[in-house]
Design goal:
CATH superfamily: Immunoglobulins
CATH topology: Immunoglobulin-like
Number of strands: 10
Shape: globular
Order of helices and strands: HEEHEEEEHEEHEE
Structural class: alpha+beta
CATH class: Mainly Beta
Number of helices: 4
Length: 193
């Protein structure tokens, strides 16, 4: 009786290992956006944000962009001050929206931020621009009190709500359409200017 149950056990173990490896392989193809660094620096008008992200779309999204599907990316910054007696005080926030599309006629990637547009020869060049923020004004002068500690949060993410409706369903269900976007949180002490 032991000899007959062993092949069944081996088959179940093989099936389980195969499913686990397939899950890992699919997860490896999913994209990710990780913040590497961020800082708030004083300027004449207030404080400016500088940041850098590691952006990896994954093959499915890279293929979608190359076929003409525009992707939208959102940078979200939030600055709060902790209060022990109430919820955190909202100090400032900033939101940027990028549109990345491929033009098959010119064979260039076009990156748009509001009314500003820039063209790139490769997807890597366009993603490099999305992944860096330099001297973005986020807080006006006089809003922060010197010596106070503030909580900052920053995130760059793919805005799946801007995808065409049929693809929004796929983006929820299919891991290859998802981009894992992490939030960077840090504490910031306002300095004397």
């Amino acid at each position: 009786m032991t000899a007959s149950s062993t092949p069944g056990w081996r088959n179940r173990l093989s099936a389980w290992l195969g499913a686990a490896l397939l899950t890992l392989a699919v997860a490896a193809y999913a994209g990710s956006i990780e913040p590497r660094r961020a800082a708030l620096t004083p300027t004449e008008d207030g404080y400016a944000l500088s940041a850098e992200f590691a952006v990896e779309l994954g093959p499915r999204l890279e293929e979608a962009v190359a076929k003409g599907l525009p992707l939208y990316f959102v940078v979200e910054f939030d600055l709060t001050r902790a209060r022990w007696y109430w919820v955190n005080e909202h100090i400032a926030d900033r939101r940027l929206e990028y549109r990345l599309a491929y033009n098959a006629l010119t064979r260039q990637y076009r990156l748009s931020l509001g009314t500003l547009h820039q063209s790139f020869e490769s997807l890597a060049e366009a993603l490099r621009v999305i992944s860096r923020i330099a001297a973005l004004p986020v807080v006006d002068r006089g809003v922060l009190k010197p010596g106070e500690v503030y909580n900052a949060a920053l995130r760059l993410s793919l805005d799946r709500s801007q995808l065409p409706k049929p693809l929004q369903v796929d983006a929820l269900a299919d891991r290859e359409w998802q981009v894992d976007a992490k939030v960077l949180r840090w504490q910031f002490t306002a300095s004397e200017k």
